[in-house]
């Protein structure tokens, strides 16, 4: 289909290749035009339109708006609560395991082994499964699989004392977390785009809160011991299934109100759910997925990889070495109340990091603020790499001024959390 539109003397050409299995069908096409407020849509008329095309011209300001109808607000709150809990519980066990690392491993085993086992399976699940799996995603089955794997992994960590089996349990819980993350984010795309963005924002906020809640949860149950404490926390895994099956509304139940009275536009917005008879499933091969991935590598994936590379290197490799003398209460009143021994520095760094990750991952949902523009997506990566160099040189050469070194490191860790969460 070729359409030539003229708005105030400016020609706008559209080309779309449209196929339908019903030759007698009248295809409804809605074009949203970003035009000046003084330009009327009546002046934007095509030269010719096929009889089988019903063309609707609407101003950019007439796009469907989210949360305009009162009856959708309760559903939106359900979306927010469900995806926040999914992000929280899906990532919380990762934080619990890292926080309890010293209690889970013998003193002869470096904590880096635990960090590797706790990260690698989740990374493999997120990097491989979307390209390896084929066919329609069975979300209900996958959610139960993630729930049961997370529960079994945490329970094996709690009840088994053998090092190999405990590491295996950590790997299982990590794999469940990675698979769960891609599952819930994939499921969010079944809603209309506005609701998808809304759900992803609250899911990200939940993953940010997982750091604070996970660390706090372990310190609460820590007096009970590893066996009983982790066994109790393992049952929180079922909260993801409860949130998905009992709280999260189904995609077809989400209403979208449109300021315009044009019924064809409302029908267009509900096409994915109501026109299922004419929906054709598309099976993508591995090469097809690679073609889709290629244009996203430089603007999206590569900066995200660099952010997490620098972030994990700082948290697991550099931060534990940033130790100073215990602060003097006369010179550092606030720090002296938080740091009593050298072992208190790293937990404080992690608390600051997790708090600022939560803040940065919540700005699009809680505040809400617009997301980072595409032209700025490399900024967190460059900033994170700069922090890695800065903190690494401080660890090696101890060149920060002694009077401000502790405070400056804490500020840089906070910036790291902001950069990591915002990406």
Q: Could you tell me the strand content as a percent range?
A: 5-15%
Structural class: mainly alpha
Mass-distribution shape: globular
Approximately how much helix is present in the residues? 55-70%
Helix and strand sequence:
EEEEEHHHHHHHHHHHHHHH
Low-confidence stretches: 1-68, 256-279
Which sheet architecture does the biggest sheet show? 3 strands, antiparallel
First-last Cα distance: 39 Å
What does this structure look like?
- The protein is mostly helical and 423 residues long.
- Helix content is 61%, strand content 7%.
- It is built from 15 helices and five strands.
- The chain has a three-stranded antiparallel β-sheet, with no helix packed on it.
- It is globular, with a radius of gyration of 26 Å.
Compact overview of the structure:
With 423 residues, the protein is mainly alpha-helical. It is built from 15 helices and 5 strands.
What layout of secondary structure does this protein have?
Blueprint: E1 2-7, E2 10-15, E3 27-33, E4 45-46, E5 53-59, H1 70-99, H2 101-104, H3 111-132, H4 139-159, H5 163-188, H6 193-221, H7 225-234, H8 238-247, H9 263-269, H10 271-274, H11 286-318, H12 333-338, H13 345-361, H14 378-397, H15 405-422
């Amino acid at each position: 289909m070729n359409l030539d539109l003229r708005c105030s003397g400016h020609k706008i050409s559209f080309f779309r290749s449209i196929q339908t299995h019903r030759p007698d069908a009248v295809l409804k096409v809605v074009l949203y035009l970003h035009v000046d407020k003084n330009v009327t849509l009546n002046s934007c008329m095509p030269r010719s339109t096929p009889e089988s095309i019903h063309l609707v011209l609407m101003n950019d300001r007439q796009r469907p708006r989210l949360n305009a109808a009162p009856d959708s607000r309760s559903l939106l709150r359900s979306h927010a609560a469900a995806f926040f809990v999914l992000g929280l519980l899906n990532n919380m066990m990762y934080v619990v395991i890292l926080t309890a690392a010293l209690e889970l491993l013998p003193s002869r085993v470096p904590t880096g082994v635990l960090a590797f086992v706790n990260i690698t399976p989740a990374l493999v699940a997120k990097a491989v499964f979307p390209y390896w799996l084929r066919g329609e995603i069975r979300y209900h089955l996958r959610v139960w699989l993630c729930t049961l794997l997370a529960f079994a992994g945490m329970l094996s960590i709690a009840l088994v004392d053998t090092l190999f089996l405990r590491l295996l349990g950590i790997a299982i819980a990590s794999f469940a977390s990675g698979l769960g993350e891609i599952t819930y984010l994939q499921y969010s795309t079944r809603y209309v785009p506005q609701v998808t963005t809304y759900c992803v924002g609250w899911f990200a906020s939940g993953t940010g809160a997982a750091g604070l809640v996970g660390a706090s949860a372990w310190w609460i149950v820590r007096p009970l011991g590893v066996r009983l404490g982790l066994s109790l926390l393992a049952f929180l895994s079922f909260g993801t299934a409860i949130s998905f099956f009992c709280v999260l509304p189904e995609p077809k139940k989400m209403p979208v109100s449109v300021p315009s009275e044009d019924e064809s536009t409302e029908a267009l917005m509900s096409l994915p759910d109501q026109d299922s008879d004419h929906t054709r499933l598309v099976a993508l091969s591995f090469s097809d997925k690679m073609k889709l991935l290629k244009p996203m590598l430089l603007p999206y994936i590569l900066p995200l990889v660099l952010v997490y590379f620098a972030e994990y290197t700082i948290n697991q490799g550099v931060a534990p070495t940033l130790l100073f003398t215990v602060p003097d209460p006369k010179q550092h009143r606030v720090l002296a109340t938080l740091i009593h021994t050298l072992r208190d520095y790293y937990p404080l760094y992690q608390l600051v990091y997790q708090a600022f990750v939560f803040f940065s991952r919540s700005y699009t949902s809680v505040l809400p603020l617009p997301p980072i523009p595409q032209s700025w997506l490399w900024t967190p990566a460059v900033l994170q790499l700069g922090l890695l160099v800065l903190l690494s040189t401080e660890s090696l050469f101890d060149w920060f001024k002694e009077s401000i070194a502790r405070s400056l490191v804490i500020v840089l860790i906070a910036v790291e959390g902001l950069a990591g969460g915002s990406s």
